[in-house]
Amino acid sequence: MFQQIPLIDFGPFLNGTDEDRQRVSSQIGDACRNVGFFYISNHGVSSTLTERVYEQAKRYFSQSLEEKMKLYIGSCPCGNNRGYTPMFEEKLSLKGDLKEGFDLAMELPADDKDRIERGALLYGPNFWPDNLEGFRECIYDEYYLTMISLGHKVLEAFALSLNLPLNYFKSMSQKPMVTMRLLHYPPQPVVLDEDQLGCGAHTDYECFTLLSQSNQSGLQVRNNKGEWIHATPIENTFVVNIGDMMQRWTNDQFKSTVHRVINVSGTTRYSIPVFFWT
């Protein structure tokens, strides 16, 4: 019956003693069991880097639809779910979501061994624009790889909160399937149709999500009473939420909580979710 989303200082876990790490992990475990969402502050990711990623997102989405459709996700050469998703194409809302996105994941060659031998179709190369100098370097080389490192630390905290060894999940993440999205939501000041939201009500599929939000509110989380609780942006934090896979792995100890996005800010909203499968 939560009415707010916990804010947890992650700094002591990254830089503190064993006792500090255990204390922070316990706080995270409580949030995962009772809410399924929490914020982390002092996470070690430069705010300057995050701001640069938002600038790159604005730069990308400000292009013409014709230009963006050159990287249409359905035409990705390897069919591995990378590239541009136009407005209304995704349908978590019945009539299509009021958002557009750009998807990327771990940069791997088209002849990656796991792709060839195991049929791991989501492994492979990304689908990059060739007209935006510095886009790939900022988005992937700097931000994406930094977020993978942070995600590994969050997995360590999950392990300790479950009374497991610190590196319990490490063997599962040697070649992590981590998807990152740049998302753009136009303003939706009044909801006239519940079947057409920025992003309809859903749970995430994977282990967990690390989400950076721009200053515009939009994310809402549903509590056990069916009330929608606003996940108001907090400067220099990430929102962390549990996905269906982690709920399954923990035998329903951790909760994969329903959430949605309605951009009622009156202005454009951007967000950068990073989805961790392992």
Automatic annotation (TrEMBL):
<dbReference type="GO" id="GO:0046872">
    <property type="term" value="F:metal ion binding"/>
</dbReference>
<dbReference type="InterPro" id="IPR044861">
    <property type="entry name" value="IPNS-like_FE2OG_OXY"/>
</dbReference>
<dbReference type="Pfam" id="PF03171">
    <property type="entry name" value="2OG-FeII_Oxy"/>
</dbReference>
<keyword id="KW-0479">Metal-binding</keyword>
<comment type="similarity">
    <text>Belongs to the iron/ascorbate-dependent oxidoreductase family.</text>
</comment>
<keyword id="KW-0560">Oxidoreductase</keyword>
<dbReference type="InterPro" id="IPR027443">
    <property type="entry name" value="IPNS-like_sf"/>
</dbReference>
<keyword id="KW-0408">Iron</keyword>
<protein>
    <recommendedName>
        <fullName>Fe2OG dioxygenase domain-containing protein</fullName>
    </recommendedName>
</protein>
<dbReference type="Pfam" id="PF14226">
    <property type="entry name" value="DIOX_N"/>
</dbReference>
<feature type="domain" description="Fe2OG dioxygenase">
    <location>
        <begin position="175"/>
        <end position="278"/>
    </location>
</feature>
<dbReference type="InterPro" id="IPR026992">
    <property type="entry name" value="DIOX_N"/>
</dbReference>
<dbReference type="GO" id="GO:0016491">
    <property type="term" value="F:oxidoreductase activity"/>
</dbReference>
<dbReference type="InterPro" id="IPR005123">
    <property type="entry name" value="Oxoglu/Fe-dep_dioxygenase_dom"/>
</dbReference>
